[in-house]
Amino acid sequence: MNILLVSDAPLDESEIGYKTQNIAMELLKHGHTVTVISFEYTENDTHPFNAKNIIFNSTPLNFEIPVYEKCSYSNTLYHNLSDENIKILRELLVSELNEITREYTFDAVVFSHITPLLLLKNTPKIPTFVMAEIDEANIINEADIPEYIKIRNSDFTLIYSEKYSRDTILRLYSQKPPQSLRWNGFYNRSIFRHHDENFDEILEKYNFEGGNNILLPPLNLTNNEVTRFTDMAELFSLFEYDVNFIMLTDEEKTKTENLSSSIRIITPESRFHRAVLYNNAICALIPTDKPFPPSVVFNLVASGVKVLARRYDYMKDIDIPHLYLIDETDLISLARGIIEMLKGEDFTADELKAVKKYSFQNSFDDFLNIIDETTHEYRSDN
Q1: Alpha-carbon distance 258 to 292, whole Å?
Q2: Fewer Cβ in 10 A, N or C end of the chain?
Q3: What b-and-e string marks burial along 90-108, b requiring 16 or more CB atoms within 10 Å of the CB?
Q4: 360: Cβ–Cβ under 8 A, 6 or more apart, which residues?
Q5: How confident is the model at residue 193, as a pLDDT?
């Protein structure tokens, strides 16, 4: 099949960027042709997938793609745009997409998340798939969604990994909801363990004294949630626990004036640097009060890191070792959870293998079956 893969930032070192790259590479491995639409401008020609088939990557677009939260490639927020603004952007984007579809013939189009779809008046006239994201679901759940953003076209298949995202994102539809199909391909460990020429040097760089590193993974956290991590660092330093609290951030400049001196703040230079930090850690704390992407947990556990997080219904379907779940994120519950993790047994070889069943590689056939069967039904109906 010839697949058109759409993402506003497939080259970004974010969960959505990783997922887009995972899908593209797995499709290529299975013998399919992939063309990636990237709204993200870059001058770098070294990409993890078929560089010659990345569209929009060499010339900046004459508009910014709207996003729910400011990020590396856009400061334009949906909630600051008028109906007329959206109309103009949609016309520009449709013009760009029409140029592409005139030049190529595609069997199906896959949107790696929901945001780019919100700019389209109509879905493409080929089988269309849209993947639901927890981060987007959180924002949609918290925001007042303007009527002009809601989707009136349901001629596509929504692919979701957990019920929370599916139910939340379906709020975007003002008419009949689309077909929804579940897929459990969460993460790609081989990509996360990308190798670098300076392996030993980087390994030593993040090998901190003491060795008992407790990580705060890079997530979209509120100030209160970050404060919980700093409170933990201060509490454990007060009782002289032999641990290092490390806050990872995707931002080059993080406000540090209100953070505890017991916390080390690191902005990893690349996903490989982050992987090394994970491999040098013993525990991770996810102090959030809202659902979080399961891929964050899988990348940590696959690195041999125990994870403490709040219990959510969708976590019941995740059967992996050393995932410590609590019902409340107050100071006492978090402290008890961390102590329990520190006292817990280390990972066995079999436990480290257990997470592999959730990998893209092991479950990608299910993804291809969703596309294949839906495409076959589409052809039959037309």
Answers
A1: 25
A2: C
A3: eeebeeebeeeeeeeebbb
A4: 22, 23, 26, 185, 186, 187, 188
A5: 46
Please provide the DSSP assignment of 32-81 as one string. -EEEEEE-S-------SS-GGGEESSSS--SSPPPBSS-BTTB--BGGG-
Q: Put the strands of the sheet holding 263-266 in their side by side order.
A: 263-266, 244-248, 213-216, 283-286, 306-310, 323-326
Residue count of the chain, please give it: 382
Q: Give the DSSP H or E segment for 223.
A: helix 223-238
Closest alpha carbon to 162 in 376, 358, 369, 361: 358
Instruction: Give the three-state DSSP class for 224.
Output: helix
- Tokens representing 244? 């290092």
Distances (CA, A) of 83 to 75, 92, 117: 18, 15, 16
What's the predicted TM-score (pTM) here?
A: 0.80
How confident is the prediction for the chain on average, in pLDDT?
A: 80
Measured between alpha carbons, how far is 17 from 265 in angstroms, rounded to an integer? 23
| Alpha-carbon gap, residue 213 to 97, rounded angstroms | 47
The tens digit of pLDDT for each residue in 271-283 reads 778 888 888 899 9
In the three-class reduction of DSSP (H, G, I as helix; E, B as strand; rest coil), residue 3 is classed as strand
* Alpha-carbon distances of 7 from 10, 17, 38, 179, 289, rounded to whole Å: 6, 8, 6, 21, 28
Q: Output the furthest CA–CA distance in the chain (Å, rounded).
A: 69
Backbone phi, then psi, for 80, in 5-degree steps? Answer: -100, 0
What strand order describes the sheet that includes 54-55?
Answer: 54-55, 33-38, 2-7, 108-111, 128-131, 157-160, 179-182
